[in-house]
């Protein structure tokens, strides 16, 4: 079987705590796309900022899946496809998380709305929650590092029982565990199928790679699902192949294994 594309998670798959894609991986991806293959990122993050800069560094021209599958964007950040939490439902979720004293944020447009001190990474993109307009909200979250894995999993269950119209995932990034919350119909699975249509590809053409819970839909929608060596056990259980860890630049093994003749 000749595959045509790799769709890869970002945190824990392409990058680690230093947040930079290793140079050997950059060169391998450039060589991969120069041969006519497609490489795209499927991330929980917004496009503006870190993802945009890494897309430019990789020289990608492809569409990217962002905000846990809520949006598909082009290389200038224009939204090509999107699914959003209903306005009143978004307000209910924010109020619930406030009542639970969770360190929450709302990810919208090119801004992060939060009352938490999240450092300098987002710069002027950070705005207070009080300034949020509840309109076309793609993603609500609990900050990574504010929960243990156990707490994140329990909160997923509690919110799943209370809110039946959203997708909730325990999310892990370099800071630790948090939550990703999106609309029904906004997962990496559904976004990948839309992405495939936009690229005139079949799911069988795609190799999906990830490491965390929100990558489960990505792997199930791909022709081949690859879990990183550092992935959660639940993802490894459904994977067709387990690559070396992110620290070992496991994505290189994925390229060599599935695209060695291209």
UniProtKB/TrEMBL annotation:
Q: Which GO terms describe its molecular function?
A: magnesium ion binding; phosphatase activity
Q: Which GO cellular component terms are attached?
A: cytosol
InterPro entries linked to this entry = Cof, HAD-like_sf, HAD-SF_hydro_IIB, HAD_sf
Q: Which SUPFAM superfamilies match?
A: HAD-like
Q: Which domain of life is it from?
A: Bacteria
| Pfam families (alphabetical) | Hydrolase_3
Q: Which PANTHER family would you find in this protein's record?
A: HAD SUPERFAMILY HYDROLASE-LIKE, TYPE 3, PHOSPHOSERINE PHOSPHATASE
Mind telling me which NCBIfam families this protein's record contains?
Cof-subfamily, HAD-SF-IIB
Q: What protein am I looking at?
A: Haloacid dehalogenase
In its UniProt entry, the species of origin is given as Candidatus Roizmanbacteria bacterium CG22_combo_CG10-13_8_21_14_all_38_20
